Amino acid sequence: MAKRDEQKPREMERRRDNAPPREVAERLIAELAGLVRRLAERHPDYLNGLNLPDRLSLTLEVPLNGAARGSASQVIEQIDRELLQAVDLTQSVRLGSVFCFQCRRSDCEHAQPSQPDSVFAGYLPTGKPTWQSLSQLCLTLEPAQVDKLYRPTPELVFVLSTGRDLRAALLDDFGGRARNFVILGQLALGHLVFEEQKRALSIQAVLGEASRRRRRLDLNLCGLDRADLHRSRLGPFDGPALREVLRRCRYRLAQLRRGREIDVARLDEQVLPILTQLKGELERLARRERRNTQHVRERAREDRPTTAAMRDLEVAAADRFFRDLHEKTAIVLGPKGRVHVFSFDGRHVTSMKLDRESVLRRQERGRWVALGDAEIEGLRQRLSEQNRLKGAGED
Ligand SMILES: [Zn+2]
Which of 7, 20, 32, 386 could be stapled to 346 by a disulfide with Cβ–Cβ 3.0 to 4.6 Å? Predict the structure, then answer.
């Protein structure tokens, strides 16, 4: 048995040594590409993957004495550095911005939402992006939904716009013909409330310039910054779940483009069902979270230690009552190992879980002694008295 285990790796090694050098190199490159993608995934701009370049140039140092560790961390650092540079190089798309054809850049004041609750509302003929509050946009495009934003517990509102509408005003000479940044559709939504701010989000399907030679379909998110994207909660959404939904949508978009010719009208059409699907997934996600928080709240109410303790006390048989001689407290055993500690003047001190052994040990060592019927009755009365006073105070 031991012998076979020793032989296996050696045989694998031999087979690897015999593989044609080209095959070995291909395998290494494929593995490196996988590593780059994995490192890119933890890059803050990954969701706006437009910035991911087609290829990276790496300088590899290969130690021949088998000391791989130092070189390995160098490779990782180098990839991180290159990815960062790639992000800076692709100026046509920046995280959370649209391209301003008037200023011919995406870092001018027009390129980003003007207010936390603004969403992209299309271009002016000169190529200047316009932003509008979500409620205003909703009033124009989806008046039936507006009241959702103003309910005591506001609900999420979604406004879907086609690329054609968002680009409609653009003149050919001011971005109408540009291909470095083409909005193909948008799902605006809100409000996401965090940091005591109402935020709106513009999720856009965009054809952008990934590098000088290649264009790419991807998601662009306006209204959140890098740090926001990595929150554990985003308004009604669970952070990781939201990122997963966006990732899947991004993948569907990336699958779309085939062929060299860019047919914007056709892409507009293809993008719409993907954004509609995204909308459905986000609605479900928000609903699920709402249900979960409701459950948590209900459970918290049920499990308030005092409530559980009082419930156990009510049904406990006489042989479940003890006096703790060390602590001078009353002990009541509930089901499932629950142990409740009360003061004799009628306060719930604490509750805990103890296994059977611990419970028995305390009795055997004489630390816990059984309470008499009269003492139990007295304790019950004082506790229910206290509880009634407290309940009245709370209401
Ligand atoms: Zn501008």
Answer: 386
